[in-house]
Write a structure and sequence with these properties.
By secondary structure, the protein is mostly helical. It has one domain (2-140). It has five helices and no strands. It has helices at 2-46, 49-91, 98-109, 113-120, 122-140. Helix 1 (2-46) runs antiparallel to helix 2. The chain starts with a helix and ends with a helix.
């Protein structure tokens, strides 16, 4: 039983790690987006088409890369949430199963496409759309 509790603790630590990594990638996506959008705005005054387009494309690609990192962390976290839930079913009484309860709420919260875009992937959607807009503006300037 002690080994099972240790395995459960390690699963919880893994969840914490991946969740923290996902959060950090979200924050990084906002920071890089704001930085590159600022660079684009400053370049807009000078009107160099190639720089404007390059910044927009680089911003889109970098945002996509960070989004893929986030999704990798999200999938790993989801896996470990389910694993922890299964462990709780074996190890703990019904009233003490936080991951089991969270899994049900998690699935409800992110079941629709709009929820995924506006909640789960909001930083990437916001920054990505901003770079699409800057790319369009760059071409029609």
């Amino acid at each position: 039983m002690k080994d099972n509790i240790e395995a459960y603790k390690e699963t919880c630590n893994t969840i914490r790690h991946y969740s923290n990594s996902s959060f950090n990638v979200r924050v990084l996506s906002i920071a890089q987006g704001l930085g590159l959008l600022t660079a684009w705005g400053l370049s807009f005054e000078k009107g160099n088409f190639y720089i404007l387009v390059s910044i927009s494309i680089f911003g889109l690609l970098f945002t996509w890369l960070l989004f893929r990192f986030h999704m990798g962390y999200f999938y790993a976290t989801t896996y470990f949430f389910k694993l922890a839930s299964q462990m709780e079913d074996i190890l703990f009484e019904e009233g003490f199963r936080p991951f089991h309860a969270y899994n049900k709420e998690h699935e409800k919260k992110y079941e629709g496409l709009m929820s995924k875009i506006t909640i789960l992937n909001a930083p990437f959607a916001l920054i990505g759309i901003s770079f699409i807009v800057t790319l369009i503006i760059s071409f029609f300037r």
